[in-house]
Amino acid sequence: MKTKQILLTVGISAVTAFGVMFGYTKFMQRNNYAGQPAGIPSNYKLAGFFDNNTPPGTTDFTQPAQAALPTVVHIKTKTNAKQVSNNLPKTQKSPFSDFFNDDIFEQFFGGRGNTYIPEQKASGSGVIISDDGYIVTNNHVVENADEVTVTLNNKKSYSAKVVGRDPAYDLAVIKIDATGLPFLLYGNSDDVKIGQWVLAIGYPLNLETTVTAGIVSAKARSIGINKSTKTSSAVESFIQTDAAVNMGNSGGALINTNGQLIGINSAIASPTGYYSGYSYAIPVNIVKKVVDDMIKYGTVQRAYLGVTYASDGISDEEKKANGIKEGNGVFVTGISKGGAAEAAGIKKGDFITKVNGTAVASSAEMVEQVTRYKPSDKVSITYERDGKEYTTNVTLKNSAGTFDIVKEDNGVVAKLGADLVNLDSKKAKEYGIPGGVIVKKINEGALNDQTRMRDGFIIIKVNDTDVKNVDDLKKIVGADKSIIISGFYPGSDGIFDYPITLE
Predict the structure, then answer these.
(1) Closest by Cα among 288, 20, 22, 250 to 138
(2) Is residue 300 within 8 Å of residue 398, measured between CB atoms?
(3) For residue 458, what are the CA distances in angstroms to 366, 432, 488, 490, 497?
(4) Which DSSP string corresponds to 239-265?
(5) CA neighbor of 203 nearest in space, from 69, 91, 318, 332
(6) Can you give the pLDDT at residue 181?
(7) Residue 77: which pLDDT band, with cuts at 50, 70 and 90?
């Protein structure tokens, strides 16, 4: 009897256990979010780590790192000791400004002597992009350098020359006299996805080649760092990553797991100056265009759409004050007279939503797309106006408002640091002069550092020789290091002289 009871108890327990396991399995099958739950429409997807319960393979960075390491170089620079004029910066008034115009005061009394700046040394990184020695790096790595030395991964060192540089992009091209070099292949930064693995390679903190890994945490990020260099029309559309980048990484490579270049490391977000969690790289699709221009023309062929636009992240109060409506895309706050957009019929109040069919939701994205083209290129611009969508073809122009290719200036305009345009013949006749050059905007350079010249100044002479156009200016300025620029401000009396020493 007892034996039968025991067998019965065991049987009931087995059946019960089997039933519980069967029910639990069915329950888990219905609620396993890695797949598609029952009762949910097929077009509705829930996030899961794995598809079909298959874990991902192990991530291995050794192959892309080994492919890229020989192509990333150490750049060391030396800036010779020099004396700098102590003229007041344009933003600071002289103590006599209540009695004298500051420009007149400096004309008669000059500056306050010179400051001695000792020899300076710095280092950064660069990426070999051709087997005959062309290297891309950041502008701020080689800017003002009197000597540039490149050390390869195999410890060989070369003297380098600067082919071209542009602070608006914070990019520069240098060249060493070598052949048969390993070089990094370009990837496509448009294909970069948020969350994908990337590697940063460079020479941080004067260490040997260093590789760090992270993921892409954002795209088309603008952080205002290029604008802080006083450059005109800065281009910022960074790839943001959490790969560790420190001082010395500037100009180094950001690569994908296929070993392709997708960006040039340029900046970090840090209250201390050292890596604090985020780093920023210039997308390779911008790099390619800038590098090609510098090698072919000696300077970047920058195209302009001819619009002003609302900054991203503008507050509700600012929107209300400026009459900015809610909408998709980039809100146009103004149109440049004679610019490309005006000729194409784009107006203040439009929302630009696409450039050549590529959606742009921020000003950084729009600028990134436009900056890939050169003056005279045609692009399609899609915009919204009063709830309707329109598409128009726009022929882009240069900063002077023409379709011309900008010629290499042997560094003259770059050293002066200004956007220069020819004075219109009608205006010249109105002023009673044969011609002149308008200082449209003063950026970083000699005019900003050594004078109190303001935007809008019209240059009519250099070293007492007439200047009728920008070409005249380049010829005269390029012939002498010590010059005196003479001209006037529209609406003001008198001629102003600005002495400058070009390094």
Answers:
(1) 250
(2) no
(3) 32, 13, 5, 8, 11
(4) EEE-S---TT-TT-EEE-TTS-EEEEE
(5) 69
(6) 96
(7) very high
CATH 3.40.50.720 fits 60-80+119-300, yes or no: no
- Where are the domains positioned within the chain? 1-57, 60-80+119-300, 307-395, 412-501
Longest dimension (CA), the chain: 129
pLDDT category of residue 198 using cuts at 50, 70 and 90: very high
Residue type present at position 475 = K
Residue 53 φ/ψ, nearest 5 degrees: 60, 25
| pLDDT tens-digit series, residues 389-436 | 999 999 999 877 777 776 655 566 777 888 888 888 888 888 989 999
Query: Quick check: 112 pLDDT over 60?
Result: no
Q: Check if 307-395 and 412-501 are the same fold.
A: yes
Burial of 423 (0-12, 13-18, 19+ CB in 10 A): buried
User: Chain-centre distance of CA 475, in angstroms?
Assistant: 31
The residues that are catalytic are: 140, 170, 250
Write down the pLDDT at residue 85.
53
CATH topology of domain 307-395: Pdz3 Domain (2.30.42)
pTM value?
0.70
| Residue keyed to tokens 């009394």 | 109
- Over the chain, what is the mean pLDDT? 81
Query: What residues contact residue 462 under an 8 Å CB cut-off, 6+ apart?
Result: 473, 476, 477, 483, 484, 485, 486
CA dist list (Å): 158 to 104, 125, 155, 175, 206: 48, 14, 10, 9, 18
CA dihedral of 395, 397, 402, 406, whole degrees rounded to 10: -130
Helix (H) or strand (E) holding 44: none
pLDDT at 499 exceeding the cut of 60: yes
SS3 content of the chain, % helix, strand, coil (to 5): 25, 30, 45
Q: Tell me the two tokens of residue 377.
A: 């290129």
Q: Report whether CATH 2.30.42.10 matches the domain 412-501.
A: yes
